[in-house]
Structures are given as C-alpha cells and as structure tokens.
Design a protein that fits this description.
- The chain is of the alpha/beta class and 121 residues long.
- Helices cover 28% and strands 30% of the residues.
- The chain has helices spanning 7-26, 82-95, and strands spanning 30-34, 39-42, 45-47, 51-55, 66-67, 72-76, 100-105, 110-115.
- It has a 5-stranded mixed beta sheet, with helices on both faces. The protein has a 3-stranded mixed beta sheet with strand order 3-2-5, with no helix packed on it.
- A hairpin with a 2-residue loop joins β2 and β3 (45-47).
- The protein is globular and about 35 Å long.
Length: 121
Amino acid sequence: MSPAPNPIHQEIVFNFATLLWSFVRGKTLGKVFLRPLDVVLSERRAVQPDVIFISRPHLDIVQDVIRGAPDLVAEVISEGSWRRDRVEKKDLYEQFGVGEYWIIDPEARAIEVFVFGKRSL
C-alpha cells in the first residue's frame, strides 16, 4: 500500500481541482472529481487519478464508479511516484483512450500535457 500523500501534494491537488472546477462549472462543461474514486478502464485495470474531468457528452460513464476513459486525468508527482506517473500511467491512459493526461511536477514547477486522441467534447 502506498503512503498517504503529503500536505503539499494535497494542496496542489486541491488548488488545481478548484481552478478546473471553476472553469468547468462556469461553462457547464461537465464534472470534476477527486481521488479516491475508481476509474475502471477494463475488467482488470482500475486507477485513482488525483483529478478527473468528464465532459457532459461522456457523463454516462459516471456510475457507481467511473466506468470508462475520462476526458482528462491529472496526477501530481509525489516522492517515489515519478516512474509510475510518467511511464506506467501515461502508457495505460493512452492505451485505454483517456483524452488528455496532465502531469503536475511540483519540484520542476511544471505541468506536462499529453493529448492522446481525437476525443470530441
């Protein structure tokens, strides 16, 4: 089991989610969710991204859990999560049709954005 995120990680998640939620809500674009919430990509693959955005046309995947690929997922890199976030999760999200994957790197003070597909909002 992974250790709980530290306060700085949680503050970054909260601030990012708040900004995203304000933008999404103001334009009624969809919904924003926070971890812990299962995103079931297949029968054998589920993840819990830090921040999840589902656009209005895709809200049918929001059920008892999220069943399908979100339009956007964001992960804040924590100590020890670099390889998992940058390699394993990036490959997984691309493979299962996530629209965009944002990696927030507090140490580098940067956000990397990966756009994977032709998902229309």
